[in-house]
């Protein structure tokens, strides 16, 4: 955002700065572990024969890691002439159909969230969107036991699209207290960090009332419950910026 402002002669982020810009924000999520020291986004999975995806000389990694797979998926569905901000999470990997084409009906005034229809018992292990008949997001659920396991649910995918109208408001949050604590600038300044969720702190702000949103503790492992005062203050700021917009799936 800072680079875009400077390159266009602006000091403040606004709609004009990103009116014709295409921005990709990749969130390489997944905690490092002994099995995946760089996180799951950079994991090397064995094939059916137990071989790792290396080149013949074992020095160059072939593009078979989850991060690259997700970038290829995104390349397949993003229209080439649509500006805005795409946010891609690598926490979960999804597969496209063979005939998948770029989406051509993205709303210029709504946040677009992506989901996949699955059985409710599958979605109950993850997160899901509750949709109205017009595909507007009514609410979110996280690991809730389904009333009917055979019913269809809308599994949350780690992909969001923000058109310029919304992305300018979203990117401006990075320089707003206490949201700046969730950025590297805030951490470098010595401030207490703030962990936020794309879905439970951003998407949910567009489909809930202020006090409901501020006090919600859905998916506690995904949000910063350790700093409740900061989290609630941040959510009031987020709601003030984004609640006037709608999210659609």
TrEMBL record:
Family annotation (InterPro entries): GHMP_Kinase-Related (IPR052203)
GO annotation, biological process: GDP-L-fucose salvage
Key words of the record: Kinase, Transferase
Superkingdom per UniProt: Eukaryota
Name the record gives this protein: Uncharacterized protein
Molecular functions per Gene Ontology: fucokinase activity
């Amino acid at each position: 955002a800072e680079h875009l402002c400077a390159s266009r002669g602006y000091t403040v982020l606004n709609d004009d700065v990103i009116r014709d810009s295409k921005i990709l924000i990749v969130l390489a999520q997944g905690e490092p572990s002994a099995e995946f020291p760089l996180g799951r986004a950079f994991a090397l999975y064995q094939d059916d024969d137990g071989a790792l995806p290396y080149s013949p000389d074992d020095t160059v990694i072939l593009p078979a890691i989850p991060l690259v797979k997700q970038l290829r998926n995104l390349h397949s569905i993003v229209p080439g002439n649509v500006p805005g901000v795409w946010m891609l999470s690598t926490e979960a990997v999804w597969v496209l159909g063979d005939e998948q084409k770029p989406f051509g009906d993205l709303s210029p005034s709504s946040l677009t969230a992506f989901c996949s229809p699955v059985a409710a018992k599958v979605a109950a292990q993850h997160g899901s969107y509750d949709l109205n008949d017009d595909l507007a997001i009514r609410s979110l659920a996280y690991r809730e036991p389904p009333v009917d396991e055979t019913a269809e649910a809308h599994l949350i995918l780690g992909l969001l699209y923000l058109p310029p109208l919304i992305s300018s408001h979203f990117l401006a949050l990075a320089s707003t207290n206490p949201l700046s604590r969730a950025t590297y600038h805030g951490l470098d300044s010595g401030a207490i960090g703030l962990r936020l969720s794309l879905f439970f702190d951003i998407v949910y702000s567009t489909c809930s009332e202020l006090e409901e949103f501020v006090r919600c503790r859905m998916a506690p492992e995904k949000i910063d419950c350790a700093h409740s005062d900061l989290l609630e203050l941040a959510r009031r700021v987020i709601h003030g910026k984004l609640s006037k917009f709608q999210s659609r799936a």
